[in-house]
Amino acid sequence: MASINWSDTAPIVAFAGVFAGAIGLPVPAMPTLIVVGSTLVAARDPLLIIGTFIAALAGAFLGDAAWFLTGRRFGYRVLDGLCRISLSPDTCVRRASGFFEKRGVKLLLVSRFIPGLSLVAIPIAGAGDTRFSRFTLYDLLGAALWIVVGLSAGMLFYRQIDAVLSLLRQFGIGMFAVAAIGLALWIAFRYARRALLLARLRKSRISVDELARLLANEPGALIVDVRSAISRRDDPYVIPGSRLFDLATADQELATLPRHSALVIYCSCPNEVSAAKVAERLSKLGFSNVRPLTGGLGAWREAGGDVEAIALTT
């Protein structure tokens, strides 16, 4: 049986790995590019190198364009879905929103180098007023830079990578099984960390019905909206009487709130991890009665709770 020339498969592997990573599958796209780059050295074929680069770029853009159009179609609601499936905490969504607020679509030039950021920043770009042509320009530039770094690293350190691949071949499928188990354990760890955060604050959470009773008995209860500015622009309504805070700059403002008052924290993400993190931070600042709202603003609205419009500055 003829042996497989792995360099000949480089464009296919590069496309598949990068595309899978771009659409959010737990595939190590950058390590894939590095390994692919190491196989290109032996081929010594400039056309194969160029073809591999183009294939990887096509995979990156197709995956990104799918998320951009999803954001354009469904707006910021797509972020709720990312909150539900993301391995990163909900604060990854908030971080991307904050970065996009400051940098705009230019963020796509570097977003791939920050794990999880690209997956969130692209639908945000689609949900905003970013033109597809402008998105295409910065996405292709950012993806090209990222791909060049990955392939170049593989070509530069091909000897070390070849040694590792030789070791893997000696162990055969057993090492692939170890790699699969390792990936599964990593995913389980990320989900477990999220679950532990929510479990620590589950007893302190307040339901929509409990909040309604609290507001009826204590109209002056402090309700804190910790959504990002970009989320508020998409849904410019709050629970009546809410105070607005942005997690990126909120520490000093939050520290001014009365320590012994009941505080209810809510966000827009269905997993309310952002609200839980704020509650945790407030507890460290000395607040004794901090309660995240289960289900956030969406649960309040679905239960028929009143909302009021907020004035947003541009």
Automatic annotation (TrEMBL):
SMART domains: RHOD
Highest taxon of the lineage: Bacteria
Entry-linked Gene3D superfamilies: Rhodanese-like domain (3.40.250.10)
Annotated transmembrane regions: 12-35, 47-69, 107-125, 137-158, 170-192
This protein's record includes keyword Ligase: no
Main location: membrane
Domain (Rhodanese) ranges: 217-309
Membrane topology, record value: Multi-pass membrane protein
Keyword Lyase part of the UniProt annotation: no
Subcellular location: Cell membrane
UniProtKB keywords: Cell membrane, Membrane, Transmembrane, Transmembrane helix
Xref: InterPro entries: DedA_domain, Rhodanese-like_dom, Rhodanese-like_dom_sf, Thiosulf_sulfurTrfase, VTT_dom
Name of the protein described by the UniProt record: Rhodanese domain-containing protein
